[in-house]
Amino acid sequence: MDMKYIVEDGSLVISLEGRIDSANSPQVEEEIQKIRDAEPDTPVVLDCEKLEYISSAGLRVLLRLQQETGNVKLINVSSEVYEIFDMTGFAEIMEVHKAYRVISVEGCEVIGKGANGKIYRIDRDTIVKVYLNPDALPEINRERELARTAFVLGVPTAIPYDVVKIEGGGYGSVFELLSAKSLAQLLESGEKTVDETAKMSIDLLKIIHGTTVRPDSMPDMKAVALDWADFLEEYLPADLYQKLHSLIADVPDDNHMMHGDYHIKNVMLQNGECLLIDMDTLCHGNPIFELASMYNAYCGYCELDHSISQDFLGIPYETAAELWNKSLRLYLDGFDEEQVKAVEDKAKIVGYTRIMRRRIRRNGFDTEAGRAEIENCKKHLEELLPKVDSLVF
Questions:
Q1: What is d(CA 127, CA 161) in angstroms, rounded to the nearest whole number?
Q2: If you classify domain 103-176 with CATH, what class do you get?
Q3: CATH superfamily, domain at 181-387
Q4: pTM above 0.85, yes or no
Q5: Whose C-alpha in 67, 132, 228, 361 is 20 to 30 A from the C-alpha of 177?
Q6: What is the tens place of the pLDDT at every residue in 261-314?
Q7: Strand order in the sheet with 5-8
Q8: Nearest to residue 189, comparing CAs of 319, 323, 314, 325?
Q9: Where are the domains of the chain?
């Protein structure tokens, strides 16, 4: 076996090919040792792009290599070979990186977008979430774990079954959603009314909020909201900042699940069942934080520029505002109008806190539109904070 190798980025990269089994494993081990003799102090990377199969005899070669060097990395491992490493525990002994198939999203329909990425429909059966961060593998693994946690706890979720490279750069998670459409698409096309959309959305949201999670399994939304408030300390009058901080700090700890970015583009309807997607914002906390996020998606972000609603949700601002009003009343079933308005004010406090921080961090003071949005948030907070004594409802 004539092995190819190069020294690249401070590593000795050795290419493995074909099959490694009892018939040729001694020769493979001998060839690897010869190469290492020429570069004895260089970390070893085994490129498995052309490796088709490895038996227990081959695995023992890799184990001895790991024991000798203490740091062997395997890259470009096919799904079939990775399964062998995974089943035998080798994926826990050494660093193993799967090979990712490359796909293109050029010309594909965008069915959702958020702070961390866009969701494209690749074909009738498949969608892919493409992450904005080109080095998003840790984010992808984290979101997959969150999605699995939600699924095991009984929340209807779409589970990613593959990770891919995106042509042109970056990574994506692939989901199988046979002919599914988002609630936003169904509302935009007229297939569902505002009333029907609100009911389906809130029915799923109540399942999510009725699910208890381990506090260490996902982020605490209260801690995140406190960070938003603390960021605004130098931008708000001292008394208003103190009131804002106290209101959020006094919200009781809550271990019920939240989506964190809940709106009609993140809910898919498949065969009559609503499924939750875009799970990287999954967290736990009091529902007031979720309602604040929903208010922003339907009204807050679009308040000064109604065209944002059309661009983001695919529906006019007036329709989005109607959807918010009906969704809130369905969620607060049994509340009278005065109580509903009180809860809405609580949600707005958290919502405008988030928008104001977001706009300032994105250099909002540098543009006329940014300054207007910051001032609008500040005006709402100055109006709402003095009359709200608790965010709990």
A1: 11
A2: alpha beta
A3: Aminoglycoside phosphotransferase (APH), C-terminal lobe (3.90.1200.10)
A4: no
A5: 132
A6: 999 999 999 989 999 998 889 999 999 999 999 999 999 999 999 999 999 999
A7: 5-8, 11-20, 44-54, 72-77, 95-98
A8: 314
A9: 5-99, 103-176, 181-387
